[in-house]
Batch of 2 targets.
Target 1
Amino acid sequence: MNEDSLKEKQISFAEAKEFLKTVHDDLVALLEQNKITESYRMYPAEDIVYIMFREYYASQDCLKIVSIVEGFELTELVEYNSVDWWFFSALAFDVDTDKIIKIIQEKITEEEKNKINSVIDKEDDVVLKKRI
């Protein structure tokens, strides 16, 4: 892969900021749902990272979040000492990278299975089902 194609795939700062608004909204919703909006700092942020990666995002969104955290300075993206800082600094410094990779790989596998199942489950493919 050459440098030009890598540059094309990189997310711009404006795109990153826009996407992080969605992540912020999802994070706040999760905290509110669990009634920990005010006391979120008492909880390990890395656990919230794992939950959000497992339950809120598709594999491509997980990869996008990771690439944003790796590609930009946290101080450029989020306000220091905010709920977003708590979340993204945990992603950048505290999470087990192997766990994040495993979550993303499982999501990719599940998404691929769903694609295959959706093809097989179409009514037009009755003959294919009978062969299987």
Target 2
Amino acid sequence: MSDSVTKWHEIQESMPKKSKKSKDTSDRLNAVEHIWYAESDRWIYIERYASGYLGLNYMQGDEYEYFKKNWCEINRAMSEFYDTMKTDLIKLRVEMSELEFIDKVMWIYFEAATKYDEYN
């Protein structure tokens, strides 16, 4: 695997596709991406919707076949958290690429969830 980001785009041919995972069940799924993000040693799963909504999930580690089998569906809580952070962290968002920002929000989400589990 190279050090650069590797993308798999699986643009859906049977459009429009409705998803129960998106906020709006009539929202059209435009693309699905599997992205290897070496900087954080993780696979990132992205569903892109016509409205601009992103469905997200990730898996630490580079085992792509395991990622495809077990992690290629959105984590609704993480996706909603990201959707909120797009606005709340606008200053940070404009200073980074989209992928860097997605990764940063994933780290924040992970840390918050870890602390919540640890202390509750």
